[in-house]
Write a structure and sequence with these properties.
Largest sheet of chain B: 5 strands, mixed, barrel
Structural class of chain A: alpha+beta
Helix content of chain A: 55-70%
Structural class of chain B: alpha+beta
Largest sheet of chain A: 6 strands, antiparallel
Distance between the termini of chain A: 47 Å
CATH superfamily of the largest domain in chain B: Nucleic acid-binding proteins
Oligomer: heterodimer
Largest interface: A-B, 52 and 46 residues
Shape of chain B: elongated
Number of strands of chain A: 11
């Protein structure tokens, strides 16, 4: 029954999406109130049926209903319940249903909040409806999760063990809230172009959605990187894998968009540019979906190797990007340009921010696409690795970090560079002194490392100074909290990246029982290897006694697990965080009877990488809260402004 | 020039400068940092020079894996026509097996041994790295319907 309910729900969702698209677009014209009302109701209906489809799929996974092909191929009765439930989106078909469900949530939110007035809401719903139609057709025609299997197998094929991890269980929904959230910004940008009402109102309407998307992308990327750090056993946190890049590019553009939309809603500056960024942001989300879902890449994330699906998503991509850019080319020249600003002003600072962030997204895009394009065109196979990204991405980000502190200290339209410099001078001195101290004391000596620490101090210090100044000037509201937290978070992450990349210690050896390994002052003694089987896997667990200067500190227990149902294996590392430093131990393969390869790292400042991500997300939340408060405190003035 | 025009000019200059700078960065970085993929036959036929980094892929020859001393592992990567000896010091992927597909990155040393800095295997039993499939197809050792 569940399968039929899900199937029916998807079909009804498609019908409602078609209605929402048509009614929304008609309702965007003057006097289209009735159509606009229909679009609103359809959006709520779409939400109900998308939720029903998602719910039935999760239910089928919970019951291990192997008469459904998708469940049989991706689940197993011995799997813990949590991974049965989250396994619903741990496969291609299910993840596309989740995609549409998140889209329906955003549509319902747009319909419910009616930001930007009736006509703009209606147009935005129309565009969202079109996207929903495309993706529902994609699901029903190429990736139907409710296809039946007759006769049902006795047991399912299981889920990739790398995905059977509490950290990763909620990684896809978080990222999708981010990816798909950019569709709301895209829809509002298209709505502004369709209604011709492209002044500040649309940017104000879209901004909360961009914020939600940005927060989710930040958390999703930080969470994914944390997962890679503790499960892959290499001690690394970022691999410049195409799939990681696919999430980083929308984040960079969403960050640029947050800043340019700020200028657009405040002074009307960068109107055209903000529209274009909204289109680029969602386009990169679609590119990410294409890269991950089409099978052109091979990684943990690439479930599907079906060229038909790739072509379908490529079709959606071309239609969405092409359509939006055509609309943009047709309407944008008629838009009025915003008010003027001085060369020393908040606007210039935001402009530099945008140029650098877009350039950063551009180099990541080229590095990601180049091997695919070359393979498709010439058949040459090559890969672009971390050195390329370090050589291109790092200098751009250094420039960005140098400029970040100036933004909040410069006024709109006309800023005072002398006063900004005077306020930031102590921070600059602290950063330089910090870098020199690091260079003098910390071994091995590293100029790049010292520079990165100085840069981190510069950005964090400036956030603190800005917050203190604003408190004294009595302009310290939620939006000031937001920018201080988000910028400080960036600095904190940079400190973590610098510490881990520059000052990591590493040791590796084959150990028998009783043998020891030394890394950065720690003494690791392999006491025993024991069996530690779980509900659906066999595991070997190493018991490693850690001591320092003869004093026993802890026992670390890294594992390797093999999953018979899936025919796969994975490592569970053991990490001990002391202050701001990680002792990281991974159990490798067996090298001869009773002798095991053990790999250990000490990663100084590593926890700061993810702490910084969390602080950035808090900054985003503060900004969202600032908006809600403005609305709650002054409903009349806000409504008038809208 | 009125302020609007001037602002547009600045914007255009900023975009052009950033674009040119970015392009220069990308071109130099791409020239120095791409890794080509070669099958064992390619390595022999194209006379890949020593100390040039590339990726090699093929099957781990059955019976060729020798472990030790220490964390070193030696094995032979083959595409059925040609074979290249590989030396690697480090943790092998969980699904590294004899007779299965593998991709390694590194460079040839004096004496024709490929010193790998990274070894990747397929991540489940059903999956074969596409580069390996391609290399086997080119050497004529790929059977249609083989595990993929």
């Amino acid at each position: 029954m569940t399968g039929e309910i899900g199937q029916l729900a998807l079909s009804l969702a498609l019908a409602l999406a078609v209605v929402q698209a048509m009614a929304g677009l008609i309702g965007s014209r003057a006097g289209g109130s009735q159509a606009a009302a229909i679009a609103t109701s359809s959006a709520f209906g779409l939400f109900v049926f998308a939720a029903l489809a998602m719910g039935s799929l999760i239910f089928a996974f919970a019951l291990s209903d192997f008469s459904i092909l998708d469940v049989a191929q991706n689940s197993h009765t011995a799997k813990p319940l949590l991974y049965k439930l989250t396994g619903a989106w741990g496969n291609h078909e299910g993840s596309m249903v989740l995609w549409v469900f998140v889209l329906a949530v955003y549509s319902a939110l747009i319909a419910f909040t009616r930001r930007g007035g009736e006509r703009m809401t209606s147009a935005a719903l129309g565009v969202q409806g079109l996207i929903a139609v495309a993706f529902l057709l994609f699901i029903l025609l190429t990736s139907n999760p409710f296809v039946r299997l007759d006769p049902p197998p006795f047991e399912g094929a299981g889920l990739n063990p790398l995905l059977q991890d509490p950290g990763l269980a909620f990684h896809p929904p978080t990222l999708y809230v981010g990816y798909v959230g950019l569709s709301a910004a895209f829809a509002y940008a298209a709505a502004a172009l369709i209604t011709g009402d492209a002044d500040a109102a649309w940017a104000r309407a879209a901004r909360p959605f961009v914020l939600i998307a940005w927060i989710a992308l930040t958390l999703g990327i930080a969470g994914g990187s944390w997962w890679a750090y503790y499960t892959l056993g290499w001690g690394g946190f970022w691999f410049w894998d195409p799939v990681e890049n696919a999430s980083l590019m929308p984040w960079l553009i969403a960050t640029a968009l947050l800043h340019s939309a700020l200028a657009t809603e405040r002074t009307g500056a960068f109107r055209v540019w903000t529209l274009l960024l909204s289109i680029i942001g969602f386009s990169l989300s679609l590119v990410g979906t294409f890269l991950v879902r089409s099978g052109v890449l091979t990684s943990v994330h690439a479930f599907a190797n079906d060229p038909e699906r790739g072509k379908f998503i490529l079709g959606i991509l071309v239609l969405a990007i092409g359509g939006a850019l055509a609309l943009f080319a047709w309407r944008a020249p008629r838009l009025q340009t915003g008010s003027a600003f001085d060369i020393v002003s908040r606007e210039t600072a935001l402009l530099s921010n945008n140029v650098l962030l877009t350039a950063a997204a551009g180099v990541v895009f080229l590095g990601t696409i180049y091997p695919l394009a070359l393979d498709a065109l010439t058949g040459h196979k090559l890969s672009v690795g971390a050195p390329y990204f370090a050589a291109t991405f790092a200098p751009i980000f250094v420039g960005l970090m140098l400029l970040v502190p100036f933004g909040p200290r410069l006024g709109w339209r006309r800023g005072d560079i002398v006063s900004a410099l005077r306020i930031l001078l102590p921070v600059g001195i602290a950063a330089v002194v910090g870098a020199i101290v690091v260079l003098a004391i910390v071994t091995p000596r590293s100029l790049a490392g010292a520079g990165a620490i100085g840069l981190g101090v510069w950005v964090i210090g400036a956030s603190v100074v800005d917050a203190v100044r604003r408190n004294r000037e009595r302009t310290f509201g939620w939006s000031a909290v937001a920018s201080a937290l988000a910028h400080a978070g960036l600095g904190i992450t940079l400190l973590g990246i610098a510490g881990t990349t520059v000052w990591r210690s590493e040791a590796m050896d084959v150990l028998g029982l009783g043998d020891s390994l030394h890394v950065a002052g720690y003494d690791l003694r392999l006491r025993d290897i024991v069996a530690a089987d779980g509900p659906n896997y066999f595991a070997k667990r190493a018991e490693i006694d850690v001591s320092r200067n003869g004093a026993s500190i802890a026992t670390l227990e890294p594992e390797t697990r093999s999953y018979p149902a899936e025919g796969q294996a994975k490592a569970e590392t053991a990490i001990r965080t002391t202050g701001f430093s990680d002792l990281y131990v991974a159990l490798g393969d067996e090298r001869g009877k009773g002798r095991w390869l053990i790999r250990a790292y000490v990663n100084p400042l590593a926890p700061l990488i993810w702490l910084g991500g969390g602080v950035m997300a808090l900054g985003g939340l503060a900004s969202l809260f600032a908006r809600l408060r403005v609305r709650a405190l002054a409903p009349q003035s806000y409504a008038a402004a809208e | 020039m009125n302020p609007k025009k001037r602002r547009r000019l600045y914007f255009a200059i900023a975009v052009v400068v950033a674009g040119a700078g970015g392009a220069a960065l990308v071109v130099t970085a791409l020239r120095d940092n791409v890794l080509y993929f070669y099958s064992p036959s390619d390595v022999v036929e194209k006379h890949v020079p020593e100390q040039v980094a590339f990726r090699i892929g093929g099957l781990v020859q059955t019976g060729s894996v020798k472990r030790g001393p220490g964390a070193e592992v030696r094995f032979i990567v083959t595409d059925g026509k040609r074979s290249i000896p590989v030396s690697y010091t480090g943790v092998l992927p969980d699904l590294f097996r004899e007779g299965q597909g593998v991709v390694a990155s590194g460079a040839l040393e004096h004496g024709g041994v490929f010193r790998a800095s990274e070894v990747l295997a397929k991540h489940d039993e059903r999956y074969m790295p596409p580069e390996v499939v391609d290399a086997l197809k080119r050497s004529g050792r790929w059977k249609e319907g083989q595990t993929q």
